[in-house]
Design brief:
Layout (H helix, E strand, L loop, with lengths): L1 E5 L4 H12 L4 E5 L15 E3 L5 H11 L1 E6 L6 H6 L1 H21 L4 E7 L22 H20 L2 E7 L1 E3 L16 H9 L7 E4 L11 E2 L1 E3 H16 L5 E5 L5 E2 H12 L5 E4 L8 E2 L4 H6 L9 H19 L5
Parallel strand pairs: 1-2, 1-4, 2-3, 4-5, 5-6, 6-11, 7-10, 8-13, 9-14
Antiparallel strand pairs: 9-12
Helix pairs in contact: 1-7, 2-4, 4-5, 6-8, 6-10, 8-10
């Protein structure tokens, strides 16, 4: 059995490939390198540079490598960008997922794991949010992923393969051994803060709103370490192999940290202040977004290893130091 990982030269895909290799299983990856990098893939020789929406290429890849399981990460993931470029998101996330599923049907794929997002919930009425919460996406990104979930459900029924959808919350951190981490344009809090902490960015960290109805006024999020996320996908794959039916599961730790608490973690880890300033709220940001993790802890044999905000921050900082050394830039 060979596992195809789409987006294998990207942030989460690279960690997934590391986890599969450590489990002693064969894999092959696909990436168009639009946001990923060849050097980030753990085994560049088994990286096929192609578009996940190219059905004929994907079919040939699946047959050549004997693929019968797919973990699908490839796509666009930036909420603000999706508002500016909605058609790109529907094309890249939904239409290309349809093309991938057509290739899966043609090759009689047995199992499929779709990496979805908590953005499908939009502004949930309650937190922690569980999987039965209404789908109410407020961005094209969330809507495109929700559409893909529905397409996957219908395709699996029609073509007889099993699947799982993992909706994850705020992914952060980097491989503890320094082999992979987040690259590209920084948009997420911990990535941006880590760059500032090592001197790769000189400006202050922007806090978007300090008047939320939370204990310290800043927004609260459920941060999950990227290696734990990869382990959750392995656990999901194992459950599918045991004959489990379709499931949708949140991936998070079930507790949140505010922006101010994340800044505190950076200051503890580095031993110095993290420059920051408070600005206005961003439209559409909920006060808090925390996963209800009862289902994943019950259904999957998944036990997070890195549920510690200081560890997450430390791994992100160490990765930024490696990137700075690789590029010859500054590193504090």
């Amino acid at each position: 059995m060979t596992v195809l990982v789409t987006g294998g030269a990207g942030y989460i895909g690279a960690h997934m490939l590391l986890a599969i290799a450590e489990a002693g299983e064969p894999s092959v990856s696909l990436d168009d390198l639009s946001t990923g990098a060849r050097w980030l893939s753990p085994d560049p020789k088994r990286l096929i540079v192609a578009d996940v929406g190219d059905r004929e290429v994907v079919i040939r890849l699946m047959r050549d490598f004997g693929v019968n399981e797919v973990i699908h990460f490839a796509g666009s993931t930036l909420v603000p960008e999706s508002v500016q470029k909605p058609l790109h998101y529907y094309w890249n996330n939904t239409a290309k997922t349809i093309a991938l599923l057509e290739a899966c049907a043609a090759c009689d794929i047995e199992r499929f794991i779709f990496s979805s997002t908590a953005a499908v919930y939009g502004m949930p009425d309650q937190s922690p949010v569980n999987e039965s919460a209404p789908i109410h996406s407020i961005s094209p990104y969330g809507a495109s992923m929700a559409m893909s979930e529905r397409v996957l459900e219908d395709a699996a029924k029609a073509h007889g393969f099993s699947y799982m959808v993992l909706r994850y919350f705020n992914v952060a951190g980097a491989d503890p051994k320094g082999r992979a981490g987040q690259i590209g344009k920084p948009t997420h809090l911990i990535k941006v803060a880590a760059q500032i902490a090592v001197g790769a960015r000189r400006e202050k960290l922007q806090i978007y709103g300090a008047d939320y109805p939370t204990p310290d006024g800043t927004a609260i999020r459920d941060y999950v370490h990227v290696s734990d996320l990869a382990d959750a996908h392995l656990a999901a794959l194992a459950r599918l192999r045991r004959g489990a039916g379709p499931e949708i599961l949140n991936v998070g730790y079930g507790r949140g940290y505010s922006v101010s608490e994340v800044i505190d973690a950076f200051e503890r880890v580095t031993g110095r202040p993290l420059p920051h300033e408070i600005g206005p709220r961003r439209s559409g940001d909920p006060p808090q977004l925390i996963a209800d993790t009862a289902a994943i802890r019950t259904e999957l044999d998944w036990r997070p290893r890195y549920d510690d905000i200081d560890f997450i921050v430390r791994s992100a900082i160490e990765w930024e130091k490696r990137l700075a050394a690789k590029s010859g830039g500054p590193a504090a």
